[in-house]
Inverse folding.
């Protein structure tokens, strides 16, 4: 029986969930979910000075918005410091690590001499093979270092980058435990990945060199190595490393800008990974198709036009009730008032004529302005110009015909067209005043869609208000 796939996302809670981190989480989630595996979350909060509960909450909220649910409880790395230290002492007892009593001054003196002589400044401790009998007394400050191989090379068999070879003379005897007994990050990551049963470490390629150091610990402990897959970072449209000048960096900002989560998942999946020529796909397709072999070696470029295009397709394809639910979440994220029950009901009824060609929730809400408005409708300048005395007279004449019409598109079109023809005009000439009366603006969905969504009573009330208003 093959081993169950286990992936993990391991952010540091020092700020928002970065868009690059979100993509890393998504790749791990897709890889695990597509294979019936587990997707675990570890909060790497060992930097106590910079880690905050607020940042942890922001990461959890960002993952929740993206729909990337993890299995089990989120693990705190800081809470496992004793276990990390335990592994360091196991390596010490096995002779694969050693106590180093060198002071900072001695280490700096070694490096200065190495620089002067033109040789490697990687510190080579004289305590590596020292007889324990020569050690200072028990209370002497020391660190615990791993014994790194001095010859040959460490080869990282990377599923994205291919085999990456690092000469062992480029690796120093890494510190495992500091002089105050606290474990270093490299030790914590290796121990946690092993203990969590992680089979695939999928992360940014800025961690590639870390893999060689973490492999030292795996090999010294005799643990099987995970599969490493280091993915290129995301760059801005100009090909430079993503930064604030390129726009939003945090996932929370994308939510507040009104992008739907399904569109973000689709776009992030395509950012550095491909499946043939497929651009738009569902979550089910992404889970079935995603594989590490489809990840490119070059950095992906953020493209807001592609993002908006995909988001528009997902808004159009999403079921109305689900879209309304996410729209309410968008309003909450932006601090806006939630929709009343009546408005929510009208919005859901009108989704069929609102969601086509809307790329974001603000665009969708803009199209829904006729629903969000309350009587009396205040027309803007361009709409008010449509409501002259002649058009008001036509609206007054139209109203009783609507009162008796069957409330269907065909019937409403027949009544409105007949009224226009009686006045010797085409319906297009009547559409402007109708838009002004129903929505207070000139750019709206179809007049008949607005009537159908608003219903007979509200439609006639708005037309009556407009016809009676002498401006």
């Amino acid at each position: 029986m093959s081993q169950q796939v286990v992936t993990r996302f391991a952010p540091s809670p020092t700020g928002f969930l970065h868009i690059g981190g979100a993509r890393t989480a998504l790749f791990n989630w897709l890889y695990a979910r597509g294979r019936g595996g587990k997707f675990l979350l570890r909060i790497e909060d060992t930097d106590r000075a910079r880690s905050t509960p607020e940042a942890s909450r922001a990461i959890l909220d960002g993952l929740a918005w993206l729909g990337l649910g993890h299995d089990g409880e989120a693990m705190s790395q800081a809470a496992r410091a004793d276990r990390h230290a335990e592994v360091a002492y196991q390596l010490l007892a096995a002779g694969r690590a050693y106590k180093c009593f060198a002071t900072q001054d001695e280490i700096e003196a070694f490096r200065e001499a190495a620089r002067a002589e033109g040789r490697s400044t990687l510190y080579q401790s004289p305590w590596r093979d020292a007889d324990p009998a020569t050690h200072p007394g028990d209370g002497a400050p020391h660190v615990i270092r791993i014994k790194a191989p001095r010859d040959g090379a460490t080869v990282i068999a990377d599923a994205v980058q291919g085999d990456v070879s690092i000469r062992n003379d480029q690796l120093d005897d890494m510190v495992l435990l500091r002089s105050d007994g606290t474990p270093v990050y490299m030790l914590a990551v290796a121990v946690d990945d092993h203990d969590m049963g992680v089979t695939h470490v999928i992360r940014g390629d800025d961690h590639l060199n870390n893999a060689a150091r973490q492999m030292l610990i795996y090999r010294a402990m005799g643990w099987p190595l995970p599969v490493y897959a280091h993915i290129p970072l995301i760059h801005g449209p100009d090909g430079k490393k993503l930064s604030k000048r390129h726009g939003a960096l945090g996932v929370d900002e994308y939510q507040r800008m009104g992008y739907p989560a399904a569109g973000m998942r689709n776009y992030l999946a395509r950012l550095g990974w491909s499946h043939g020529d497929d651009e738009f796909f569902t979550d089910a397709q992404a889970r079935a198709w995603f594989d590490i072999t489809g990840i490119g070696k070059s950095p992906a470029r953020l493209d807001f036009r592609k993002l908006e295009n995909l988001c528009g397709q997902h808004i159009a394809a999403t079921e109305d009730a689900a879209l309304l639910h996410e729209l309410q979440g968008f309003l909450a994220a932006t601090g806006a008032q939630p929709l009343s029950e009546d408005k929510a009901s009208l919005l859901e009824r009108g989704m069929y004529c609102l969601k086509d060609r809307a790329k974001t929730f603000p665009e969708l809400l803009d199209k829904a302005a006729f629903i969000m408005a309350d009587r009396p409708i205040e027309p803007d300048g361009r709409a008010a110009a449509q409501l002259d005395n002649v058009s008001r007279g036509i609206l007054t004449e139209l109203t009783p015909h609507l009162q008796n019409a069957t409330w269907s598109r065909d019937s409403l079109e027949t009544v409105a067209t007949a009224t226009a023809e009686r006045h010797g005009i085409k319906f297009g000439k009547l559409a402007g005043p109708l838009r002004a009366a129903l929505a207070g603006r000139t750019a709206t969905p179809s007049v008949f869609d607005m009537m159908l969504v608003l219903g007979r009573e509200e439609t006639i009330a708005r037309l009556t208000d407009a016809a009676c208003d002498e401006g």
